[in-house]
Design goal:
Elements lengths: L6 H13 L7 H62 L12 H14 L8 H13 L4 H10 L4 H10 L4 H9 L5 H10 L4 H9 L5 H10 L4 H10 L4 H22 L7 H16 L5 H30 L5 H6 L3 H25 L3 H7 L10 H59 L7 H12 L7 H16 L2 H42 L6 H17 L2 H17 L3 H11 L7 E2 L5 E2 L4 H4 L6 E5 L8 E3 L5 E3 L3 E6 L11 H9 L4 E7 L9 E5 L4
Parallel strand pairs: 6-7, 6-8
Antiparallel strand pairs: 1-2, 3-8, 4-5
Helix pairs in contact: 2-3, 2-4, 12-13, 13-14, 13-16, 13-18, 14-16, 16-17, 16-18, 17-18, 18-20, 19-20, 21-22, 21-23, 22-23
Length: 689
C-alpha cells in the first residue's frame, strides 16, 4: 500500500533530493538514494504492471470483439446459406442465422441432390452454394442435363422444356425472336416469313405460310378462312367472291324460309313461301330439306285445288248452294281468282320439284312463262332447264358420234386383224412349202408378190393387205405343186386327227376297263360312286362320236382318276395292259438287235442296203406331208460306204431299184467320206456295219 503512495509524495522527495548540495554523500544520503532507487524500480514495475493490465484488458476486449465478429460473420454466413437453400427450394423456415436442425436438414438434402460433401461455413462454400442458387438448378442431374442441352440456368431450362425445345441454341434463337413454343418457332422457320412480327400477324389471321399470306393480301384478303373459301370458289377476284357469297347467303335465307313451312302448313303459308323455295332452286340449292318442303307444298296445293274443284262441281250440280259452299266461294269472280292463284302456285311448285330431280325436260315444260308473273324465279328455272336440255342433247349427240367412231374403229381393227391373220397364214404356208423343198413353176412372180406382202407387215391398211393377199393367193392357186402340197397337208392333218381320235378312244377304253376292274374288286370303296359316274361320262363320249367330246372326256377322265387318289394304280394297270417290250439281242459285230432293226442287221453279209439321209442337209431327199419318201426333180446324190476296198460301180439291177424309188437322175459320188451328210442316200453291204 505504501509503495503505491500518492504521486505528490514522490514529487516532494524528488525535489528535496534535487536541492541538496553537491559533495561527499553521507550515510543518510546513501540510504535516501537507495530508497529512491527502490521506489523508482517499484514505480517502474507498477507502471509496467499497469501497462500489462491495460494490454490484457485490450486483448480481452479485442478477443471479445473478434468473437462477436465471428458470431456475426457466422450468423451472416448462415443467413446467406439459408437464403440460398430457400432459393433452391430446400429450406422454408425463417432466415435467422441459426444453423439449427431445419438448416442442417436442408443442407443434407442439398448436398445429396448436388452430390457434394457436407457444407462448411467457408466463404468459398457459401459462394458456391449461392452460385447454385443463382443458376436455379435443383440437382446435379438437372445441371448435367442443362449442360448437355446448352443451358446455363434453370429458368431457361424449365422454359425450354415447357416450350418443347430440344436444345438451348434453338430456345435462345426462338426467345430472341419472341417465340416461347418450339412448334411455333419451327412453323415460323418453315413459313418463309422474314420477321416474327409478320409471322405472328399472319398466324393470327390463320395463315401459316408466307407465300399464301402474300397471295391472300394481293387478292385483298386478310383472313385465311375467307381466302380459302375464295380459292375453293374458283372465282377470279374478291368482288366476284363477295357477290357469290352474298348470293349463297340469300339462297340459305330462301332455303330457311321455304323449309320453315313445316310438315303440315296452311295453304296461305305455302303460297307465301313458294317464291323463297323457287329462289333456292334457281340458285342451285338441292338439299333434301328443300326437296321435302317443295313436295309438301305441292301436296297441300293439290289437295286444296281438288277441294275447290269439288266445291265448284257441287255448285254446278245443285240449285241451292250450301252455307259451306258459299263460305268457300263468296262470288264467282273470287272463286275463279282463287283457283287461278292455286293453279299458278301448283305449277310453280311442280316446276321447282322437277328441277330438283334434274328432270330438265319436265321442268322446261312445267315452268310456264305465265306463272312467272306471280313467281319471278320460275323464269330463271325455265332458262336453266332450257340450257340443261340443250346440254343433254349436245352430250347425247356427242355420245352417239363417239359410239359411231368407236364402232368404226373396232370394225377397222377387226378388219386389220383378219387381214393380218390371212397374211400370216399365207406366208406360213409358203414357208412350210419351201422347207419341204418343193418348187414353183413361176417362182419370180410369186417371190415379187411375197416381198410386196411382207412389206405390209407393219401396215394398218387392211384393204391394201387384203388386196396383196388376194393377188398372192391367186398366183399360188395356179401352181400345181403348191396346190398339191396343200392337199397333202390337209390329208396329213386328217390323218393326225384320226390318229389322235383313235388314241383318245383307246385311252377312254383303257380307263373304262380300269374302272370296271377296280369297282369289281372294291365295291365298298368311297371312290366307287365317282368312278361309276365317270364310267357313264366315258361311255356317253364314246357313243357321241364327236372329237371334242372324246378329247375332253379322255383328259377329264385321267384327271378325275388322279383326284380320287388312284393315279398310281391306274398307271400300273396301263402297264399291265400294254404288250411286253421286244427283247434285245447282240449281233456278231456287237450291235444291239431289236425287233425294229432285226431285218436290217440280220441276213446275208453281201446284201446291199440303202440308207436315206432324212436330215435337212439332204440335197434332194424329202418326206411329204403324208410321210412318203420323195426325191425332188427325180434327183439323188449317193455314195458307197465300204469298210474295205473301192466303191463298186452301180449294176443295172441296182439302177432299176433306184428308178423304182423315183430317182431318174443319179449323181454317184463314189466312196463316202467327209461329205456323208451331204448326200441323199448311202449304199453299203450288211457286212459293212
Amino acid at each position: 500500500m505504501f509503495l503505491k503512495g500518492s504521486k505528490k509524495w514522490f514529487c516532494s522527495v524528488a525535489l528535496s533530493a534535487a536541492l541538496l548540495p553537491a559533495g561527499p554523500t553521507s550515510v543518510e544520503a546513501q540510504d535516501i538514494g537507495g530508497v529512491i532507487n527502490l521506489m523508482g524500480r517499484m514505480i517502474e514495475q507498477d507502471m509496467r504492471n499497469q501497462q500489462i493490465q491495460r494490454e490484457e484488458r485490450q486483448y480481452q476486449a479485442q478477443q471479445q470483439a473478434e468473437r462477436a465478429q465471428q458470431v456475426r460473420r457466422e450468423v451472416a454466413m448462415v443467413k446467406r446459406l439459408q437464403t440460398a437453400l430457400r432459393t433452391l427450394g430446400f429450406y422454408n423456415s425463417a432466415i435467422d442465422g441459426d444453423r439449427g436442425p431445419g438448416t442442417r436438414s436442408a443442407e443434407q438434402r442439398f448436398t445429396a441432390a448436388f452430390e457434394l460433401p457436407p457444407v462448411d461455413l467457408s466463404e468459398g462454400t457459401i459462394l458456391e452454394i449461392e452460385a447454385y442458387a443463382a443458376s436455379g438448378f435443383r440437382s446435379a442431374s438437372e445441371m448435367r442435363r442443362a449442360a448437355s442441352l446448352g443451358y446455363d440456368n434453370r429458368e431457361d431450362l424449365m422454359n425450354g422444356d415447357k416450350g418443347g425445345f430440344d436444345s438451348a441454341a434453338a430456345f435462345y434463337d426462338a426467345r430472341r425472336l419472341g417465340f416461347d413454343e418450339a412448334e411455333e418457332f419451327e412453323q415460323f422457320s418453315r413459313s418463309g416469313f422474314e420477321s416474327a412480327q409478320q409471322f405472328q400477324a399472319a398466324r393470327a389471321a390463320g395463315f401459316e405460310a408466307s407465300a399464301e399470306f402474300e397471295a391472300a393480301k394481293a387478292k385483298g384478303f386478310s383472313n385465311k378462312t375467307e381466302y380459302d373459301e375464295y380459292v375453293q370458289s374458283g372465282l377470279p377476284d374478291r368482288a366476284s367472291f363477295l357477290a357469290k357469297r352474298e348470293q349463297i347467303l340469300a339462297v340459305r335465307k330462301a332455303n330457311d324460309q321455304c323449309v320453315s313451312i313445316g310438315s303440315a302448313p296452311s295453304v296461305q303459308r305455302v303460297t307465301e313461301a313458294m317464291e323463297s323455295c323457287l329462289v333456292a332452286v334457281s340458285q342451285g340449292d338441292s338439299s333434301h330439306q328443300l326437296s321435302q318442303a317443295l313436295a309438301t307444298s305441292v301436296a297441300v296445293l293439290e289437295r286444296e285445288l281438288q277441294k275447290i274443284e269439288d266445291q265448284a262441281a257441287d255448285l254446278r250440280s245443285s240449285e241451292i248452294a250450301s252455307t259451306a259452299a258459299q263460305s268457300a266461294a263468296t262470288s264467282p269472280a273470287g272463286f275463279v281468282s282463287e283457283r287461278a292463284r292455286l293453279r299458278d302456285a301448283l305449277a310453280a311448285g311442280s316446276c321447282g320439284s322437277a328441277a330438283l330431280a334434274n328432270n330438265w325436260s319436265a321442268a322446261k315444260e312445267l315452268c310456264e312463262p305465265a306463272v312467272a308473273a306471280a313467281f319471278p324465279s320460275v323464269k330463271a328455272i325455265q332458262a336453266a332447264a332450257s340450257d340443261e336440255v340443250a346440254k343433254q342433247e349436245e352430250a347425247r349427240a356427242e355420245a352417239e358420234a363417239q359410239a359411231r367412231k368407236a364402232a368404226e374403229e373396232e370394225q377397222a381393227r377387226l378388219s386389220l386383224q383378219a387381214a393380218q391373220q390371212r397374211m400370216d397364214s399365207l406366208i406360213k404356208d409358203i414357208s412350210e412349202f419351201s422347207d419341204a423343198k418343193r418348187r414353183l413353176s413361176n417362182p419370180l412372180e410369186v417371190a415379187k408378190a411375197v416381198v410386196a406382202l411382207k412389206a405390209l407387215e407393219t401396215s394398218t391398211d387392211s384393204t391394201a393387205i387384203e388386196r396383196q393377199v388376194l393377188a398372192l393367193d391367186t398366183l399360188l392357186k395356179s401352181e400345181t405343186e403348191y396346190t398339191k402340197f396343200l392337199d397333202e397337208r390337209m390329208q396329213a392333218q386328217d390323218i393326225a386327227r384320226t390318229n389322235a381320235r383313235a388314241t383318245a378312244l383307246s385311252e377312254l377304253q383303257r380307263s373304262s376297263k380300269f374302272i370296271q376292274d377296280y369297282v369289281s374288286r372294291n365295291m365298298l370303296s368311297a371312290a366307287a360312286g365317282d368312278l361309276l359316274t365317270l364310267q357313264g361320262t366315258i361311255e356317253a363320249a364314246i357313243a357321241s362320236g364327236q372329237d371334242e367330246v372324246i378329247f375332253s372326256a379322255q383328259k377329264n377322265g385321267v384327271e378325275e382318276i388322279g383326284r380320287l387318289g388312284l393315279g398310281e394304280e391306274f398307271s400300273s394297270f396301263r402297264l399291265l395292259a400294254e404288250p411286253a417290250p421286244s427283247t434285245v439281242e447282240q449281233a456278231d459285230n456287237g450291235l444291239a438287235v431289236t425287233d425294229g432293226n432285226r431285218a436290217l442287221l440280220e441276213g446275208n453279209p453281201r446284201d446291199v442296203l440303202i440308207l436315206g439321209n432324212f436330215t435337212k442337209s439332204a440335197p434332194h431327199l424329202v418326206v411329204n406331208l403324208l410321210g412318203e419318201t420323195a426325191f425332188y426333180e427325180g434327183k439323188a446324190d449317193i455314195c458307197w460306204y465300204r469298210s474295205r476296198g473301192e466303191a463298186p460301180s452301180p449294176t443295172p439291177e441296182f439302177l432299176s431299184l433306184l428308178k423304182a424309188m423315183g430317182i431318174e437322175n443319179l449323181n454317184a459320188k463314189g466312196a463316202c467320206g467327209s461329205e456323208l451328210l451331204g448326200t441323199d442316200l448311202v449304199v453299203l453291204e450288211r457286212g459293212d456295219f
